[in-house]
């Protein structure tokens, strides 16, 4: 489940003419996203959840995409499933105890063979990448109609960045930013583009909470080819979350220079603008996504929010000014492009610029600190990928390191 927290605090109060102009076509979407704004809590009581709404879609089981699992079930004669951890488009993830070691692990049960890329990348990289969730083992399960589900065994980690970012102290958030940057720089050094950097794919380390069986489960109907349940993930109280993170989900990773048919990234809020314009993912597009995450970690909000490429592009233009005129006619990010995005006369909306964002969200930070953060962000939020700072250069960037120093991150 990916949730995106949107910063719509200024809607309606700071709208200038150009802002209203752009927003007018997007307001219905803006209103509807307000209703799916994520909570920043990791401690929602299970009664507040609706399994049907937040667990993996039931039709995924009907189609034989997800492998049905029961709590207490033994898999591969080794792992006993104790709880649920999450799901994505390509998997369900369960907490299980390894009978041979008595340790808890995370089992990522793939949709068919959709996890092959992740397995191949993980196998190639081994433990060579700093702060990357490292694969421990792989096994197969036979699914509906003899379909093979690949299962990836990972160390058990805590909640994703997105699920409780707002509650974490700044030192933890800046430590997460530094560790994430190390992971990306390390991946790039090995020639790999992650391609899917977002706050659901970065996990905090955490102490496992006291837990019992999931409080609420929905059994799959008896007509299912195999018994199984849908349920909500284990909740991690914020107090058990540690300051370290690991980057996960190499499911879409590619070798740098690979051409892919799906250029854009989802959620669109982390997607580099050139990818909306038919350009392949690259090291530079990973750096744009990192900058979105860094901004989110620093400010608590996503800098260019939106459920799709059109709204995200609009916010990018309001924040950074017009996109390169050479991109006009190449937009392929969902919906129709707006010619004003490429018009050199289009101006930024002060409240939506990086400076405006920092003033709004971090009024307590002094001007020197805000200038440092702005300078870091603007090295990544360049339209032309070739002008964007590299992850390795950012590691030694004086402004980035000054921000880290300020929050005691070494
Ligand atoms: N090792 C782990 N420890 C704890 N929770 C995990 C672990 N791995 C994954 N999860 C949880 O399961 C969720 C889904 O995992 P992941 O993003 O890897 O799946 P996916 O099917 O590849 O998703 P996507 O559709 O985003 O590509 C994560 O957001 C996280 O909450």
Automatic annotation (TrEMBL):
Q: Got a GO cellular component term for this one?
A: nucleus
UniProt keyword annotations, A-Z = ATP-binding, Kinase, Nucleotide-binding, Serine/threonine-protein kinase, Transferase
- Which PROSITE patterns does the entry mention? PROTEIN_KINASE_ATP, PROTEIN_KINASE_DOM
Q: Which InterPro entries match?
A: CLK_kinases, Kinase-like_dom_sf, Prot_kinase_dom, Protein_kinase_ATP_BS
GO BP, one annotated term: regulation of RNA splicing
One Pfam family per UniProt: Pkinase
MF terms in GO: ATP binding; protein serine/threonine kinase activity
Domain of life from the UniProt record? Eukaryota
Query: What name goes with this protein?
Result: Kinase-like protein
Specify which residues bind ATP according to the UniProt entry for this protein: 108
What range(s) does the Protein kinase domain occupy?
A: 79-400
């Amino acid at each position: 489940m990916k949730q995106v927290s949107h910063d719509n605090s200024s809607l309606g109060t700071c709208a200038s003419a150009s802002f209203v102009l752009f927003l007018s076509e997007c307001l219905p979407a803006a209103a509807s996203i307000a209703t799916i704004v994520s909570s920043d809590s990791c401690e929602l009581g299970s009664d507040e959840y609706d399994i049907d709404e937040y667990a993996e879609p039931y039709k995924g089981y009907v189609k034989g995409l997800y492998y049905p699992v029961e709590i207490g079930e033994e898999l591969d004669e080794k792992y006993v499933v104790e709880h649920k951890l999450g799901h994505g488009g390509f998997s369900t993830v369960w907490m299980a105890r390894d009978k041979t070691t008595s340790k808890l692990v995370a089992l990522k049960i793939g949709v068919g063979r959709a996890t092959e890329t992740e397995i191949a990348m993980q196998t190639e990289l081994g433990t060579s990448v700093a702060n990357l969730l490292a694969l421990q083992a792989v096994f197969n399960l036979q699914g509906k109609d003899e379909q093979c589900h690949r299962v990836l065994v990972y160390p058990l980690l805590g909640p994703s960045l997105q699920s409780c970012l707002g509650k974490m102290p700044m030192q933890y958030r800046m430590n997460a930013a530094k560790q994430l940057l190390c992971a990306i720089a390390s991946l790039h050094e090995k020639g790999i583009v992650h391609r899917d950097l977002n706050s659901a794919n970065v996990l905090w380390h955490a102490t496992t909470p006291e837990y019992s069986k999931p409080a609420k489960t929905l059994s799959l109907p008896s007509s299912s080819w195999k018994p199984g349940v849908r349920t909500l993930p284990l909740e991690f109280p914020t107090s058990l979350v540690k300051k370290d993170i690991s980057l996960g989900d190499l499911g879409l990773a590619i070798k740098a220079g690979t051409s892919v048919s799906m250029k854009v990234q989802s959620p669109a809020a982390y997607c580099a603008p050139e990818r909306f314009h038919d350009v392949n993912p690259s090291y530079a597009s990973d750096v744009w996504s990192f900058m979105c995450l860094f901004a989110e970690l620093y400010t608590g909000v996503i800098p260019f929010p939106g459920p799709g490429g059109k709204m995200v592009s609009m916010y990018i233009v309001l924040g950074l000014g017009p996109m390169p005129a050479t991109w006009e006619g190449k937009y392929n990010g969902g919906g129709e492009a707006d010619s004003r995005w490429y018009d050199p006369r289009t101006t930024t909306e002060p409240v939506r610029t990086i400076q405006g964002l920092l003033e709004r969200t971090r009024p307590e930070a002094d001007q020197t600190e805000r200038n440092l953060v702005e300078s870091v962000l603007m090295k990544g939020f360049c339209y032309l990928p070739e002008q964007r700072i590299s992850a390795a250069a950012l590691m030694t960037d004086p402004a980035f390191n000054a921000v880290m120093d300020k929050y005691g991150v070494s």
